[in-house]
């Protein structure tokens, strides 16, 4: 196992990758890990380019994450955000800590001076040393918007708002009718992204949001084809345990695209890579589900997806390391 590639969102992808690195340090010390990160949550705020998922992965793996929040830095103040709000600028409900703001200032400066997002990310990682090659899915801006099903505040039903507004301001509690990934059709996979998939020995879909994290990466032109054609094993880890999103809003996102919130339904949504099974062009060789969802194993097997049921709560590093070991074990037999 030399080259492992992970397609990640923020918290779920970052925490899983931390366990993966801990496992590989013992099991395959010369393995190199690439993390391709969703940039659909990115936005401009107060003149700064914010990349929530890239930063969560970078801080988590670099030892600089606020563990309770899953984003931002520990022990940072909100004084600058409060000042911006006092001017009536920005999004009053979206606060950025003062230490985190420094990252956005540096990134925005790099982008304004002609760096691509890949180059800016590489620069920021020189400080954080995340222990992986961190790649944005694309250097072109892609922004996920949601279509509101009801009127709320200044927005009317049918309006589109940025995904982060739906999640942070409305806690994903306002009904939506779907998603639009603005800029996606013209986006090109960032340098190294497609090769990281086609030249890997193992590709992991970690327990990230299957719709707005992994789903957005999969929609970048060429990514799905790279996953279909790679000689690597493709193994997914369920972000759904016992019919619920463990943390976050995957349930609301799945509901919006008509997929049931269950480990089985998400596995079938990704589908099997096995040739000719149903001709639908799925992505998985194998799928890891939680031990409490073991009843789904026969249905997954019938659909051509090799599966195993193990504990999938990322409660601490040992538990997450054991999940990564289970992924490698499943890849070896599938
Ligand atoms: P985000 O961008 O910060 O929302 O992070 P991701 O998209 O990477 O991951 C969010 C998803 O991770 C959530 O919707 C959950 O379904 C899943 N998740 C979070 N914690 C756990 C955990 O401990 N175990 C599992 N299996 N999934 C988790
Ligand atoms: Ca995210």
Bound molecules: guanosine-5'-diphosphate, calcium ion
CATH level-four homologous superfamily name of the largest domain: CofD-like domains
Give the termini distance in whole angstroms: 14 Å
Strand composition percent: 15-25%
Tally of strands:
14
Helical content class: 25-40%
Q: Give the CA-based shape.
A: globular
Task: Count helical runs.
Answer: 13
Word description of this protein:
- This protein is α/β, with parallel strands linked by helices.
- It has 2 domains: 3-139 and 186-333, Rossmann fold (3-Layer(aba) Sandwich); 145-181, no CATH class.
- The chain is 38% helix and 18% strand.
- It has helices at 11-27, 52-62, 79-86, 98-112, 117-128, 163-169, 193-198, 214-218, 223-229, 250-256, 263-270, 297-302, 317-333, and strands spanning 3-8, 32-37, 43-45, 48-50, 133-136, 143-148, 160-162, 176-182, 202-205, 233-237, 240-241, 244-245, 286-290, 306-310.
- The strands form 4 sheets. The protein has a 7-stranded parallel beta sheet, with helices on both faces.
- Helix 12 (297-302) links the parallel strand 13 and strand 14.
- Helix 4 (98-112) crosses helix 5.
- It starts with a strand and ends with a helix.
- Bound molecules: guanosine-5'-diphosphate (GDP) and calcium ion.
- Guanosine-5'-diphosphate is lined by residues 8-13, 53, 56, 207-209, 213, 238-241, 245-248, 250, 312-314.
